[in-house]
Write a structure and sequence with these properties.
One of its GO terms (molecular function) is glutathione binding. Belongs to the GST superfamily. Phi family. One of its GO terms (cellular component) is cytoplasm. This is glutathione transferase. By secondary structure, this protein is an alpha+beta fold. The protein has two domains: 82 residues, Glutaredoxin (3-Layer(aba) Sandwich); 115 residues, Glutathione S-transferase Yfyf (Class Pi), Chain A, domain 2 (Up-down Bundle). The protein has a four-stranded mixed beta sheet with strand order 2-1-3-4, with helices on one face. Strand 1, helix 1 and strand 2 form a beta-alpha-beta unit. Helix 1 runs parallel beside helix 3, helix 1 crosses helix 10 and helix 4 packs parallel to helix 7. The longest helix has 34 residues. The protein is globular. The relative contact order is 0.14. Bound molecules: glutathione (GSH). Glutathione binds next to helix 1 and helix 3. The site of glutathione has 11 residues, from helix 1 and helix 3.
Length: 214
């Protein structure tokens, strides 16, 4: 039995997993959750994901939620296949975890609500809170200034090699531009070069194309 992902091709958290599976060259089936009709809140879905969110990984009777935990599972299960997303040595793995924590605390904490304000609220006909947008943007910019100093010294967030910590940034990082804030990335030369390199990966291009066909 192969890997199934219960999610939606347009969902940022589903994309976080899809890109990792493509890097690992693991075929998977996307079991589409009907968001528009509240499928993510249905009793069947809540049995798999108690918070009523996507994505959920199903692997031969094993269920796992939280996109970053799922990527770590994929990275370990398919170690030695496709792109290595985390080294096995103690210090190398610790540096990847450090970078992953940076993504969660210093990037996602601001980028995700900024995308919510500038993209999703508009999509759902809600009103963007401009004061919140300004505050989130200012905080994100301060963090990205630090990213720029890190990435001036090394090509990837955990060092010389790509890791899942870099890939974690792709969905919300790409949607910043959709919401009119892509310049927080493109105005910082090292962040720009790093992010463009990530976006150029076939795994991401396929993930974007899959979202457009849905
Ligand atoms: N931390 C969770 C977040 C999951 C999440 O926020 N999923 C969104 C779609 S990208 C969702 O299901 N939103 C609907 C909701 O929260 O009700 C993860 O990384 O898997």
């Amino acid at each position: 039995m192969g890997i199934k992902i219960h999610g939606a091709a347009f969902s940022t958290c589903t994309q976080r997993i899809a890109v990792a599976l493509r890097e690992k060259q693991v075929p998977f089936e996307l079991v589409v959750v009907d968001f528009a009709n509240g499928g993510h809140k249905s009793p069947e879905h809540v049995k798999m994901q108690p918070f009523g969110q996507v994505p959920v990984l199903e692997d031969d009777g094993f269920f796992l939620y939280e996109s970053r935990a799922i990527v770590r599972y994929i990275s370990r299960k398919y170690a030695g296949q496709g792109t290595e997303l985390c080294p096995t040595d103690l210090k190398g793995a610790a540096l990847v975890e450090q970078a992953a924590s940076v993504e969660s605390s210093n990037f996602d904490a601001y980028a995700s609500p900024l995308v919510f304000e500038t993209v999703f609220k508009k999509m759902y006909g809600q009103t963007t809170d401009d004061a919140r947008v300004a505050e989130l943007r200012q905080k994100l910019e301060a963090k990205l200034d630090v990213y720029d100093t890190i990435l001036a010294k090394q090509p990837y967030l955990a060092g010389n090699n790509l890791s899942f910590a870099d890939l974690f940034h792709l969905p919300y990082g790409s949607m910043l531009a959709t919401g009119g804030h892509g310049d927080v990335i493109t105005s910082r030369p090292h962040v720009k070069a790093w992010f463009e390199k990530l976006q150029a990966r076939p795994s991401w291009k396929e993930t974007v194309a899959a979202a457009q066909h849905k």
